[in-house]
Amino acid sequence: MGLPMAENMLAAGFDVWGFDVKTVDASDNLKNRMISDPSAFAAKVDTVISVVRDISETEALLFEDQAIMRPDDHPTTLVLSSTLSPRYIRDVASRMPNDVTVIDAPMSGAPYRARDGSLTFMVGGDADAVQVLMPAFEAMGEQVHHLGPVGAGAACKVANNLCAAAGVVAVRRALKAAAAYGIEAGKLLDVMRTSSGATWYGDNLQKIDWAGEGYDPANTMGILEKDVKSFMDALDGVDDMTTGPFEEAIIEEIRRMEPLS
What we know:
The protein is mainly alpha-helical. Helix content is 48%, strand content 11%. Strands 1-2-3 form a three-stranded parallel β-sheet. Strands 4-5-6 form a three-stranded mixed β-sheet. Strand 1, helix 4 and strand 2 form a beta-alpha-beta unit. Helix 8 packs across helix 11, helix 8 crosses helix 12 and helix 11 packs antiparallel against helix 12. The longest helix has 29 residues.
């Protein structure tokens, strides 16, 4: 997701610099703007948009292995665009140096929408700081929703992704049942797109890069599992809200997912 987002910002005229622990297949323009040393990267940029997988990678980037927020010469705006629990987002904000503004801006749309610049952003943070970043969000997406203080964007995203995960599970089960009845997958999906069974996953199955994956902790289905767990963590201790059997059933179905044939 991060690579096409950076490409779109660069195309829009932003002064973009990239950092990744892995070698990325970037365009020539962006390839020349990749910085391999995290300390040099931290000193080079004022605003970081973090698009890493999970809490572990976020901790490594910000505080541990790469530690870009540890040096005296660190970025002053941190945008967390990973799907993370809002409780963790607020914890990160509490550990930042006093001169750092934290905004959470997870996005939805999958890699194909990152490439065409049509992502949906769910944003939490100070209104003035968010307004400053609006041109950057608009270079990467079509819908930008400012939902409240830090953590609000993540709260919306994990709720959204619970529905997305349930949709993936339901569509996969429906496709398997249809096959057992001799109904072609394409015909079922065509009907669902114009019926009450319409879902983002089913409607866009041919466009979504990871749509046919089976479960692996390291792939996008593994990320979907992580997102459901982030939803559960977000509600831990919230009055009148309990999580358990429903979310655990979704996780179990994700873990049983086999590749689409």
